[in-house]
Amino acid sequence: MKTSDFYFDLPEELIAQRPLEDRTSSRLLVLDKETGAISHEGFRDVKKYLKKGDCLVLNDTKVIPARLFGIKSGGTARVEVLLLTRLEKNKWEVLTYPGKKARPGQEIIFGDGRLKGRIVDIIEDGNRIIEFEYEGVFENILDELGEMPLPPYIKEKLAEKDRYQTVYAKHDGSAAAPTAGLHFTNEFLDEIQEMGVNIAKITLHVGLGTFRPVKAEEITDHKMHSEYFVVSPEAADLINASRKNGGRIVCVGTTSLRTLESAADENGFLEPRSGWTDIFIYPGYKFKIVDMLITNFHLPESTLIMLVSALAGKEKVFAAYNEAVKERYRFFSFGDAMLIK
Fold first, then answer.
1. 210 falls in which pLDDT band (50, 70, 90)?
2. Cα torsion for 227, 337, 170, 189, to the nearest 10°?
3. Domain containing 138: what range?
4. What is the CATH number of the domain that holds 38?
5. Euclidean distance between CA atoms 288 and 6, whole angstroms
6. Inter-residue contact 288 to 261 (CB < 8 Å)
């Protein structure tokens, strides 16, 4: 199966550049994965497709202001650093731009010296390992100096940091938001819970894979970057009980789906687990635990459109995407939503 099989033509003007004022006011395309039937709804109509006993699974990771702009020590050259994965207390795996200004031993100064970083290694794919020096609390300094790491296709600066954050974000660690969750408000989640729908929260820290295009000609040659996840005993118990009682498992976002499929056994039983996953889901994959998915519209030739094609079938997904383009849906992180049922 070739990467080019997952290409579609997307007019640039359909890429959403800013979030809607009301998180729940986006459009919703509903795709029946069995029949291929498509319907057009509003996001709040998600409630029509949920029933008592179902379990809605949310990824409660929190995006950190992971984009830092510094100056090369001893000069004036600017260096951009994107934090990806915390390896130790003060050591991070990062992306740097331009890379040639970030050689081992090079020091980078941020915020007039509030934060200093020294490049200690260059690893696979040209990523760097940086070791920071600072006084005080790193998270406070990062909140002051860092910017939200918006995807490269978003050209406008974000007016409010919190709009690239889910309302239930809790655990710091992501370099990108689990964007399907951006459509929910606390009030809307309360309405869903009042219907008798269970809500479970798991964690997957979204990392480098979000930014990396699939360059391999054959998709099986693509290597996913590992991301850290946590499934707590409470979440595992709630999800297992929901399945046992006939409820459906409804993932909010591909990150929630990838976490559950990584942690479940072959019978779909979920064990409390934490660790790293590099699971790559593409057509032919046999799902173990997930029944439904709420997601945004994804980039052409991305691992995410491959994942939704595995869940609903490539032909059905591409028919839905063609319909979304025709109907002028808003695409990607701040765009409209899709429900695969």
1. low
2. -140
3. 67-145
4. 3.40.1780.10
5. 24
6. yes
Residues 202 and 256 in one domain: yes
235 and 183, same structural domain?
A: yes
Element (H, E) at 68: strand 67-72
Q: Where are the alpha helices (DSSP H) in the chain?
A: 138-145, 186-194, 233-244, 254-263, 303-312, 314-326
Select from 53, 19, 22 the least CA-distant residue to 187: 22
Instruction: Tell me the average pLDDT across 296-307.
Output: 95
Burial group, residue 151, by CB count within 10 angstroms (0-12, 13-18, 19+): middle
The residue with tokens 């687990």 is: 273
Question: Which residue in the block uniquely carries the two structure tokens 């970083």?
Answer: 117
pLDDT for 152: 80
CB count, 10 Å around CB of 323?
Answer: 14
pTM confidence score: 0.91
Distance CA 291, CA 7 (A): 26
**Encoded tokens for 69:** 């702009």
C-alpha distances in Å from residue 42, one per residue of 36, 57, 144, 226, 322: 19, 20, 37, 34, 19
Question: 319 to each of 28, 45, 91, 108, 338, how far by Cα in Å?
Answer: 15, 21, 45, 48, 13
pLDDT above 90 covers what percent of the chain?
Answer: 84
What is the token pair recorded at 280? Answer: 């790559």
